[in-house]
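Archive maintenance. Older records in this collection stored only the sequence; we are now back-filling the structure field for every entry so that each record is complete. The fields below show one back-filled record exactly as it appears after the update. Entries are processed alphabetically, and Butyryl-CoA dehydrogenase is next in the queue.

ARCHIVE ENTRY
Title: Butyryl-CoA dehydrogenase
Organism field: Bacillus thermotolerans
Length field: 383
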Amino acid sequence: MRHNFQELSILGKLKEKTSDFQKRESQLDELNSFPYDNFNDLKKMGYTKLTLPKEFGGGGSSLSEFLACQEQIAKGCGSTALTIGWHMGAILEFAEHRHWNNEVVSFLTKELRDGALINTAASERNAGSPLRGAKPSTTAQLSADGQYYVITGEKTFTSGAPVLDYLFVTASIENDDRAGVFLVSREAEGVSIRETWDSVAMRGTASHDLIMKEVKVPAGYLNEYVTEEKKSRRTGWTLHIPACYLGIAGAARDYAVKFAAGYRPASLGKPIGTVPAIQQQIGEMDTLLLASRHFLYGVAEQYEQHPHHHFKEEIGTVKTFVTNQAITVVDLAMRIVGARSLSEKNPLHRYWQNVRAGLHNPPMDDITYKMLAERAMKETETE
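Back-filled structure field:
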């Protein structure tokens, strides 16, 4: 994996901040908490604009470079990595597809260059997953003079809610069979956040509800319609999800290895890392992490080298494989450390909670397995 000079500089800064992020992570156990200090650090080093194309004042980072940074952030704080990943990924998607309309590009790229944060708001309570075809109940009505849309509705899983500046909101357009994606300012009248996020896993993402009551949005901020072309767009940027859980697993592994090298029970008289059973567990962790990294970054490299190949199955499989291996790594780390891994002061119990959140990020395991099975069955039809 090749790195450009700027990315190496940013990655080095992220490594320097890993210890600080780890020390702060326990603060995120509190309800309605958020890693404000971590986000301030990321802004100061220019990370939030790393995936913005260079012609708009960004870093022009590649997918592989982005993933390496995300993995490093997650070693310090999983919630920080997953939250900033949605922002960075939305920009990287634009860098690849240039699907924002001219008015949105002209306005939003300047805001992002200056440190603004953005996320997509698509999920709705009791509506099902957008990936499974759920139509938004949030509505957008064009004004009589055609100058603006009035948006009303609620969205769930709005990660980074306390610090977002803009959102891409999916809404059904009234008197139109189509749905659209609208750029909405967090400061617009009628926009508010309902603090509903009480998950014990990834609590620091602050994925609260977004409430919109008759929010006026300029007509030019209808960024795009939800079409089959949009649904079939390449989504390499979503690999930030498994990169996050790989980072968490790496942090758990590092903690367990350091513990095994330093813990000397009186009955043993030497570090438990010298015991064959512990060595096997360490070897298992490293095997799973090595396989996961090669799979993740191998697919990312192929994705970059073959812009006309979709990689839908590969991306889904990476997410499923890496996330499940990360869960196993954290479990092995806890077995090495023993009962003290469940102590409130021990980071492993937090890693264990956070890494399991990956099971509920898209695509879900059943979607990936179904996709692979359907491809396998089609292959038999052509034989």
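Update note: The longest strand covers residues 148-158. The beta strands are 118-121, 139-142, 148-158, 166-173, 179-185, 191-194, 208-218, 222-225.
Entry marked complete.
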